[in-house]
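Structure tokens please, single chain.
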Amino acid sequence: MKTIVFSTNYRNTENWIPLFKRINSKGGCCEAIYLPWIGDVSASQIHQLSLPIRHLEEIHSLDYSGISPQALDILLKKTIDDQIDIIFLCDMQTYPSTAIYKTLSNKKKNPLVIGLQHGLFQSWWVYNQNFGADYFLCFGERHRQELLPPLRDKTIPVGLPKLDLLSAKETTDNGYILYLAQRVPKSADVSNLLRELEQKTQLPILVRNHPQYPKFVDHVPQLPLPTIKGLPATEATLIDQIAGASWVMTPHSTGGLEALQMQKPLVLIPNHGLTAWAGYPGIATDLTAIAVLEALYRAKTRKPEIEMFLDSALGGLRFDHTERAIQTVERLFHTIK
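Here you go.
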């Protein structure tokens, strides 16, 4: 089974990397075509994924001015030969990925095109409008239900493969709060909340900014942070930061799923992305320390609702996401053979 991953985004590729590596370990071939936009600081981390790269080219923007349909067609003719069985699209709902399915349909031998869910919070109307794949792998049943009825038959929940990397992860409570930042709410409002929380809890807050917005929240803890595995806390990996936290807070980061997978208390703060977390009990009602601590109490005590959320978002608390994904891909592959 020869496959290609087409991606413009490090974070989405990372979410599914265990699936791609499993294909290679089982004797198949999985290589990547990356078209990151110039200015995306997370693009520098692409090589850390250790996925063989067939083509890497920075483009000015993710639209026609970054790469025209004609240039994309030339690129695909150079990089996608008739030996390719499957193409994974990390962002099938946005250009240039949206153009690939249509372009490849004109080939004499069409590879199977499989779209992949980008993250937990998504603009599902865009997927409904631009659905461009033979099949779509999503995280959970709640995400399949976001799609229009005709598209649900092409959509298969398989979980989030990167969560399998946490199966043997040991956790501790090193006495700090981890904040996984997004580009919302306003950075000034977040900074005020973090200072207030530090005063009320007497715990330092470690901020982990989103890879694409590394300086959005600039917070200096009022209390000293511990080291994590001998490193300054700010230099530790995301997984180690989560594993050592007393609890985790975020607007709507997919990293929140990693926190829940490690059974860390998780609090969400108000923002437009909370639609992805509907039904989760640990949502703060406003940006005050009191509201956050009330949400923390709910996150610690209302376990049945958290289990119900995880069932709908991931198929439950489990560590077989990659296996479910590879079995689905192999089944789809054999349908075209």
